[in-house]
Specification:
120 residues; alpha+beta; 2 domains; two-stranded antiparallel ribbon; 3 helices; 4 strands; 40% helix; elongated
Length: 120
């Protein structure tokens, strides 16, 4: 196995970026990248590398704040609707009748997003 110097500079990162899952690094302030380009002793090494969280240097724009608010509102509405016993049967029947969405949560998300966009 190649030895990697963790203190070396990272020139670029590519691949999927995600939070660590179970059994991986315990610090939740880390991001995983599937490949990196750096001056390593083994240039063919593409294992998962842990990179510290990127800190933001500017304040969020109005558009970003609006998108965060929209996302949070829709997420709360989806979770509430999934637990609402008065709507669950109708939602399950409507979900079974369609073929566009593969999960119930994505189907409910589309309904709540349409409702949000209609009201705002």
């Amino acid at each position: 196995m190649a030895k990697v110097d963790w203190n070396e500079a990272i020139n670029s990162v590519s691949g999927a970026l995600s939070k660590p899952g179970k059994g991986q690094h315990s610090c939740r302030k880390m991001v995983l990248a599937t490949h990196r380009v750096a001056e390593t002793t083994n240039p063919n090494c593409n294992r998962l590398y842990v990179r510290s969280k990127i800190e933001r240097s500017t304040a969020p724009t109005e558009n970003e704040v609006a998108q965060r608010l929209k996302f949070g509102t829709i997420a709360k509405a989806v979770n509430a609707r999934a637990k609402d016993l008065t709507k669950i049967t109708a939602d399950q029947e409507a979900y079974a009748a369609q073929s566009k969405y593969t999960t119930m949560k994505s189907f409910l998300w589309s309904l709540e997003k349409a409702e949000y966009e209609k009201n705002h």
